[in-house]
Amino acid sequence: MSTDSFSDNTRKRHIYIDSKLDDLPLTMEAFRVYCHLCRRAGCDNNAFPSYKSIGEACFRGSFPGSSTETLRQKAISAVSELVSWNLITKTPKTKSNGSVSSNQYQLTDIDDWFAFSTKQSSLIRGKNRGSSGGILGGNQGSNGGIPGVVVGEDQGSSGGIPKVYPVKDHPTEVHPLKDAPLATPPAPSTPE
Q1: Among residues of the chain, what percentage have pLDDT more than 70?
Q2: Residue 171: left (phi > 0), alpha (psi -120 to 50), or beta?
Q3: Domain boundaries, the chain
Q4: What are the φ and ψ backbone dihedral angles of 78, each rounded to 5 degrees?
Q5: Which of 68, 89, 105, 108 is deepest in the core (most CB within 10 A)?
Q6: How many CA atoms lie within 13 A of 129 on its CB side?
């Protein structure tokens, strides 16, 4: 019989999500697949589900009329996104004849996650499709090709992941100081 409390009668949290994971701008599909891989991983942080089983487990409820191949493609895109953030590593397993039999997915340590994705997710819809996305170590671009601006540190995340906002959303405003002393004495006034 399972219990929902510890021996001291305090209630267990059913799910714990680290703020660093919650702060990443993952698509819903990638987040769902990450949760599935965490559940499926053993003590060694490895899981071996097929793309088909990932698609069925993660997306069938939201897309009941979709083909198995469509769900499989969603799984492939979500796994690719997780790899681009280094939340997981993917290692193809091969048969003796050299053909790929399955993939091994290993959950990476939270300290090894990237601050920026190494590529744009194919699951993001709308205007972002043409953007280059984030580059590891660089600024994320906005839709209009304007480079992003890093605004402070996000206080809710472990490690202080900077948030990147497009410049057009946070323009720089200059407010002159009233009655401020001049840096150099003014030129003498000239009679007109």
Answers
A1: 62
A2: beta
A3: 19-169
A4: -65, -40
A5: 105
A6: 5
